[in-house]
Amino acid sequence: MTRAAASLVLVLVLVALSSTFTKYVPKSGQRIPQSLSRGWGDQLNWAQMYEEALSLSRSTNKPLMVLFLEDCSQLLKRALAHDDEIQRILDEDFVVLNMIVETEDQNLSPDGKYVPRIVFVDPSMRVRDDIVGPYSNRLYTYEPKDMKHLLENMKKAKKTENGE
């Protein structure tokens, strides 16, 4: 094999490998990181305020996922931000909001105000208190090992709204 052919094969192998290990990129292309994500998924379009998120949810007919996360868990942040399937579904099928300051809406804290907490709201603005995490003492808490559970809950929130 000639040196040029060997170089071409090497380049093709590297291209194939790099495409295998790429992160999820939204259909609209790589987005400029937003400070609103606070590292929880920089390529997502994050709502700024709860009222804006409710309006977007209603107008797009997409469920809202409200994250009460702060920076309490770097491991949870890493797990959520690096799960390509969760990031893809959030990008395509959800409105997302990262709450830093606790809201006065008591519906968003059905079992108390704590972090981390993830709550779903449907486009009719009904808080989905029936979609809970795996823990009985804090119903809306997820840990890094619970990404499959969170993914299933995201599918429930989406499925219920789409009538699928």
UniProtKB/TrEMBL annotation:
GO terms for cellular component: endoplasmic reticulum; extracellular region. InterPro entries: AGR/TXD (IPR051099), Thioredoxin-like_sf (IPR036249). It is found in: Endoplasmic reticulum; Secreted. Its main location: endoplasmic reticulum. Residues 1-22 form the signal peptide. It holds the Pfam family Thioredoxin_7. Keywords: Endoplasmic reticulum, Secreted, Signal. Gene3D superfamilies: Glutaredoxin. Belongs to the AGR family. This is Anterior gradient protein 2 homolog. The lineage of its organism: Eukaryota, Metazoa, Chordata, Craniata, Vertebrata. The gene is LOC115381954.
